[in-house]
Design brief:
Blueprint (H helix, E strand, L loop, with lengths): L1 E6 L9 H4 L19 E3 L5 E3 H24 L8 E7 L5 H13 L11 E5 H9 L7 E3 L5 H17 L21 E7 L4 E9 L4 E11 L4 H15 L1 H10 L1 H15 L10 E4 L2 H11 L3 H7 L5 E4 L3 E4 L1 H22 L8 E7 L6 H11 L4 E5 L5 H11 L4 E5 L3 E9 L10 E4 L2 E12 L4 E3 L3 E6 L8 E9 L13 E9 L14 E6 L6 E6 L4 E8 L4
Parallel strand pairs: 1-4, 4-5, 7-13, 9-15, 13-14
Antiparallel strand pairs: 2-3, 6-14, 7-8, 8-9, 10-12, 11-12, 15-19, 16-18, 16-21, 17-18, 20-23, 21-22, 22-25, 23-24, 24-25
Helix pairs in contact: 2-3, 4-13, 5-12, 6-7, 6-11, 7-8, 11-12
Length: about 550
């Protein structure tokens, strides 16, 4: 079977990835509604379309393109059934976002609910970690002893190497970097992408090279799109927010051209740069601004309080290097602060290496900031093909999804149950008397606690009984909390996050027992939470599923 990886942060869905993950670079991300199958995306012109359709359309395009490329390269017709697909997502994405991607993949016909194992959801920093453990010493650069001018040269060298490194060899041996590692040594992977920054801490288990997660995945909306957001704020300050909003609506293609021009200049930003950076303004920007304001772009720049951006006679915005660096500062500061906070955790002590990966990791400004902050704590390393690290690691993960042996649960999960009422322990408002028995309601039956270690394949077992023998469907509400000190589903911070659905159709017995028991097993050690169930009386499998999107 062929392994094909689709990196969400590399496809056209990238701009929406923050919304789907529950985060956004803008301060308004907290106002976003919960993600569901019916979630709409609104275009600049106000038109809305289902997010699921957009993602499915993008995935279908990549599927068709990949299959055609495989067929052309091998001279053999590749069918979708011959491929195992791997979709990478940020590690900080919650279960609804992962389930959303699976639904989109089903809609795009990458896989189907009947054959879910054809699709694997991989976490981006985990994929990077899997690849980094196979690195040879000549495939990486250690950020130490770099002088100011060296950062710019390093960025050019990374770009050159990335262009050359389009293929790689899957090896069955552990890379030479592990010659410096011993059993139990720890390292941190920092995945800096376009939308988010994800961090994961792994411990190496020799001699097989298996990995154990030591601290639950963390991060935030600190990707390179934050720099774009700062640039947009700068444009609003110079030309007016009302104009920028209208320009994006009336001239969307020109706005994309402008952001592409900024992207190329953004990649040239470096700590030691002296020359100004020129950003080409599309003609339609210049023309529309004159119609909108009645005067020229040059006039706006002269009257603006922003004195570090000038007008070039070639039709360009000329920014001095300090101005460009200032656009990076909020995002880079967030990343460095998050890293500093993470290193204060006792679980993260003794880190030997920090691998900086992802497209944003190519930025010399980010490299210098991380190196300056953490050089005394650990060795900071960047793979040569830093932009392809996740892609390559995802392929390796597709070949062996069991390489991560232990993960950490990001949340506490459980259900609400009735327990015997204990006087003095339970509040009187929770008392329920039924058939003469005193019960305590809303008790949180904990499946797994936040930051608890969970081995791959480890299951949580619970038994449920239908309310009546003829009942064909059992629906149980699932609750979650970011903390682990939870006693009731009504506690502060506890929220309903999904439903466990047990479909009993086809498991009936000719002589039904007085008390029917459905034994349910839930797995929390994989990248997705899974459930399976069996009717104890008939030993028949019960169709079980957890829905985090429609509950």
């Amino acid at each position: 079977m062929c392994i094909v990886c689709v990196c969400v942060h590399l496809c056209v869905c990238a701009y929406f990835a923050l919304t789907i993950g529950g985060r956004h670079c803008s301060p308004n991300y907290l106002l976003l509604p919960p993600l569901t199958i019916e979630t709409d995306l609104e275009a600049a012109n106000g038109k809305k379309v289902k997010a699921l359709e957009i993602f499915a359309f993008a995935l279908e395009f990549f599927k068709d393109h990949a299959l055609q490329e495989l067929s052309d390269q091998t001279g053999t017709k590749f069918d979708n059934a011959d491929v195992r697909w791997v979709i990478t997502v940020p590690a900080i994405w919650k279960q609804p976002a992962k389930q959303f991607m699976r639904h989109a993949a089903y809609k795009a016909a990458l896989a189907s609910p009947e054959f879910p194992e054809q699709l694997i959801i991989a976490l981006e920093p985990e994929a990077a970690s899997i690849y980094c453990r196979k690195l040879r010493l000549h495939q990486m650069i250690e950020l130490s002893g770099k002088e100011a001018g060296g950062w710019r040269l390093g960025a050019k060298e990374y770009t050159r190497r990335n262009r050359q490194s389009r293929t790689f060899l899957v090896e069955n041996v552990i890379g030479e970097i592990w010659s410096e590692l011993e059993q139990g040594d720890r390292y941190l992977v920092v995945d800096c992408g376009g939308g988010t920054v994800d961090l994961t801490v792994h411990e190496i288990k020799l001699p097989e090279g298996h990995l154990k997660e030591l601290y639950k995945a963390s991060g935030g909306p600190y990707g390179s799109i934050g720099v774009d957001y700062e640039f947009e704020k700068l444009l609003c300050k110079i030309f007016g927010e009302d104009f920028i909003d209208q320009f994006k609506i009336k001239r969307p293609a020109a706005w994309v051209d402008l952001m592409i021009a900024f992207e190329s200049r953004k990649r040239a930003a470096a700590p030691g740069r002296i020359n100004p950076l020129n950003i080409n303004l599309p003609f339609s920007f210049i023309d529309y601004y004159k119609k909108f304001r009645g005067h020229s772009v040059e006039h706006a720049l002269r009257k603006s309080s922003v004195n570090f951006v000038k007008w070039s006679s070639q039709g360009m915005l000329r920014m001095n290097p300090d101005a460009m660096n200032a656009l990076f500062k909020p995002t880079v500061d967030h990343i460095v602060q998050h890293l500093s906070d993470l290193f204060q955790k006792p679980e993260v002590s003794g880190i030997k290496f920090l691998f900086l990966v992802g497209g944003f990791a190519e930025s010399p400004l980010l490299q210098q900031a991380v190196q300056s902050s953490l050089s005394e704590t650990c060795r900071v390393i960047i793979p040569h093909d830093v932009g392809l690290t996740i892609l390559k690691g995802a392929v390796l993960f597709g070949l062996d999804p069991t390489v991560i042996k232990v993960r950490r649960s990001p949340l506490t999960y459980g259900v609400g149950v009735l327990n015997r009422f204990v006087e003095g322990k339970h509040s009187a408002e929770k008392l329920l008397v039924k058939d003469g028995t005193r019960w305590c309601t809303d008790v949180f039956d904990k499946f797994i606690a936040a930051d608890q270690s969970v081995a791959l394949g480890e299951t949580v077992k619970r038994s449920y009984t239908p309310a009546k023998p003829s009942q064909l469907v059992i629906v149980i509400n699932i609750y979650c909390s970011e903390g682990d000190d939870v006693h009731f589903i009504t506690d502060q911070g506890v929220r309903k996050c999904g439903t466990l659905r047990l479909d009993l159709t086809g498991t009936e017995s000719p002589a039904p027992p007085v008390r029917r028991e459905i034994q349910t097993l839930m797995q929390f050690g994989d990248t997705e939470i899974k459930a399976m169930a069996i009717d104890v009386a008939t030993s028949k499998c019960v169709k079980a599923g957890i829905d985090f999107l429609n509950y």
